[in-house]
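TL;DR need structure tokens for one chain.
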Amino acid sequence: MDAMIKEELKYIPKSRPGFKQNISRVAYSSNRQHHLTKGIDDRVQSLLIAARECRKDDPDFTPTFDEAYFRVTLKELLQRLE
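>> reply
TL;DR here they are.
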């Protein structure tokens, strides 16, 4: 499971220390691990939850991720955040 999450994190780019994008990566990893232990295999759901968590502190936060890998566009993800 850890190797799978580490591989998935390659598709959520890092940013400079202290930036929300890095917090989003940590939130994704945590949520993804929790979901997998519950038998829920939905990368987009984990991405969505991570973005929501970051938007609590920064309503203008826009996540950066590989749309092709996650099979969701940024526009679709942002619509689901509303």
